[in-house]
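To whoever picks this up:

The nightly regression suite flagged L-ascorbate peroxidase as changed. Nothing in the input moved, so I suspect the structure step. Input below, exactly as stored in the fixture:
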Amino acid sequence: MAALGGATAAVSSRILPSATGASLSLSSSRSFFSFECLRSSPRISNLFLNQRRVLEVRVSSRGYGTVSAVASDLDQLKNAREDIKELLKTKFSHPILIRLGWHDAGTYNKNIEEWPQRGGANGSLRFEVEQKHAANAGLVNALKLLQPIKDKYSGVTYADLFQLAGATAVEEAGGPKIPMKYGRVDVTSPEQCPEEGRLPDAGPPSPADHLRQVFYRMGLNDKEIVALSGAHTLGRSRPDRSGWGKPETKYTKDGPGAPGGQSWTAQWLKFDNSYFKDIKEKKDEDLLVLPTDAALFDDPSFKVYAEKYAQDQEAFFKDYAEAHAKLSNLGAKFDPPEGIVIDRSPSAQGEKFVAAKYSSGKRELSDAMKQKIRAEYQAVGGSPDKPLQSNYFLNIIIVIAVLAILTSLFGN
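Regenerated output under the current build:
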């Protein structure tokens, strides 16, 4: 880690992974609100199907904001992701970007049906009133880092940008590929922000019970709680912000970013399963162990998964990717309802189309493969549930050839 140049340091005010950006000040007197261009006729509307334009105006004392009734543009999402990758190369802000996405989504309450009252991934954290929640201390630095990207790609909602940044940060730090979808719609005003107190605390009286109370409210289970806790493999905690951790350790005194704080792992910008190994051992006094971290090995149900992840990084990566994707969708309203996928999953591309394998009458192909070839088979009278009949054209050629041979033989 010593080879990494300086920029962004990490900080934690609660259980979720955390980091601060480089020394950046917030000017609360500036903010941006975006309004979708009006579309008065079907013809004009069609022209804007793939090109969404926004009009930006400044307002005062509202934090960052955009008013948009539509979700994100696919091409702009792809380009924004590339810009986030470049940002990470110079700012090393992986932890704080993950924390930003988590804290925007982590306010979800499954017992509330209405949007946006239910909370969740809706971009509400861009408003100053929510930034002032104790659990969100320091996240304004993440917003400052992402604002130039938001200004550049006005066709990407804040809700999508926060989740895109978090997933990209995990992947760029060496973590698993997150099966993300986009198209989240933003809330439009500070009045739609959730009340304070929905995010988990780092040191409650009964850590395991507290984790379950908060994450069960989101609709997550014990396995997902433990897997998501593993993201503490990234980041540092600063006592002046969160009340937890040492001012400096041998792992943090030289940065990158502003020196100081206490990390959960020695290589706190590398996403792996070392968090579980280090928490289990508890041998290094320079590594942070919060009460909610210790609970993963103290609680019998949590311990099953924590032990597994300490031994098997592949299992951790698989479960983490699924849990992260689930968390990022909590409470979100998607436009279109099915969401927007930037990358197709490897499993959707991995099976080769071998017609002979299927037309033999065997049923070994997957459902995905059947869907892929359905149209081609139906075009010539077959279907994935009914093997093709004989190839009549080929049969005619064979019959003609046989007759020709017989004619030649009998003729001689």
